[in-house]
Amino acid sequence: MLATLGTSYDADLTQKSIPSIAFCEENVRLLDEFLSAIRNITELQSQQTRAVIDGDSDFARFDILLQLAQGRKDRAKYAWIAHVDAHGCCG
To answer: What angle do the packed helices 25-53 and 61-87 form, to 10 degrees?
Structure first.
């Protein structure tokens, strides 16, 4: 009986000391979309900066692309935040 109590106690201790980590594929997908949108904006800003440095007089062509990319980033950000709030998964 004493051995059984010790084994049960050890099992309870193990379960309490090792937290269960939930993996949420949707959280990962939405976060990837958000990060991808950020990378896209950064790349467009880099291209526009390069155009200005190179003396390209048509550097303003990036403005609409940056505006669209910013909208995409905002939508991705709020979708991710809404998922984390609704689902309760770690953000």
So the answer is: 160
